[in-house]
Amino acid sequence: MAELQEGSKRDRTGVELFAGAGGLAMVVHRAGFRPLLFNEFAKRACETLEANVAVRVPASERPAVPGPGERVPLVAGDVQELDMRYLAGRVDVLAGGPPCQPFSLGGVAKGDEDKRNMFPQMFRAVRQIRPKAVICENVRGLLRPSFKPYFDYIMRELELPFEERAKGATWQQHDAYLLERLKREPDDPTERYDIVMMPVNAADYGVPQIRNRVIIVAFRRDLKVDLALFRRLVQPTHSETALMRSMADGGYWERHSDVPDHVRERVMARLPATLPMGDGLRPWHTLRDAIAGIGDNKPLPEVPDEWLDRTEHLLGGFTEHIGWPGARIYDGHTPNELDRPAKTVKAGVHGVPGGESVMLLDELVADRMPPTESGISTGT
């Protein structure tokens, strides 16, 4: 993450709300935008940002605008207390993933009624900063039919962020007002945004993980961005169809010639009898692809045979997960498989479900964290 401190030839700038450990911030930076401000509430995430690129600033103070190469101010705490007006006119991109628990399939899903719904704070930031573009990332649960009216309202509010909700008005009343207001051309094109909403799967862009999200991108109307061109530029590059066809024609197995025959046969047996037509995309990247590409293609460390032995489980006992003594294998246990992208590892009030946090390496071995730029992080 040290690269976040570097300037770019064109000094384009960004602000990151709900920054987490900095994943989206790294993406925005790699696209050419130098961060001016981070905000995050979670203690451990703030510690991660500080350890890499940020310097903590009290919420009561106005952060200095960092120059190229300087550490990025981090305001740790409630975004509702953050005043960003000092950055008005200085920010190209406002990015953030408002807390997703209100809309997540893995949560209670109270939606707009949940006090953790922070979309209104994104819109307040737009009014204060007036960025040229906005990027919001959230869970696919936003598109559930039960949330559709509120999701449509979110889209309209981002399109007209300067039309604030009147005090005491419900979101439904405000939405009705926005619907009428959208029928007229804006008096000031800098106060209206053109919106692109994209349901995405990370695997469709070459990430070795199935991770479904909703990305909302907004461009300020006065910039006259070609939205049709933008949509073409962000089309998927990889597909499950291409992976299945690569397995069927042998290309995948040529890359992994050391895979045992019984493993290859098991994977091939699950392919459909009739494969879909080719779509011209590249194959999904599997866990096997990702692991083979780490470092200098070093082989995986030897795994003791007893760790791979399911005899105890089949006889009614259980084999412990590596790194998590006492965790049980159970009927319906569905670990990650090497010849598929990883599943999304869920977090919730009951911790990480065991079926999500392990990998099937031709037999059973422990899960590993995603690869980092310096190698593989160990842990569960």
Automatic annotation (TrEMBL):
Enzyme nomenclature, EC number: 2.1.1.37
Annotated signal peptide: none
Keyword terms of this UniProt record: Methyltransferase, Restriction system, S-adenosyl-L-methionine, Transferase
Family, similarity comment: Belongs to the class I-like SAM-binding methyltransferase superfamily. C5-methyltransferase family.
PANTHER family reported for this sequence: CYTOSINE-SPECIFIC METHYLTRANSFERASE, DNA (CYTOSINE-5)-METHYLTRANSFERASE 1
GO BP annotations, alphabetical order: DNA restriction-modification system; methylation; negative regulation of gene expression via chromosomal CpG island methylation
Active site: 100
Species of origin: Streptomyces achromogenes
Gene Ontology molecular function: any one: DNA binding
Name of this protein: DNA (cytosine-5-)-methyltransferase
Uppermost EC category: transferase
Gene: sacIIM
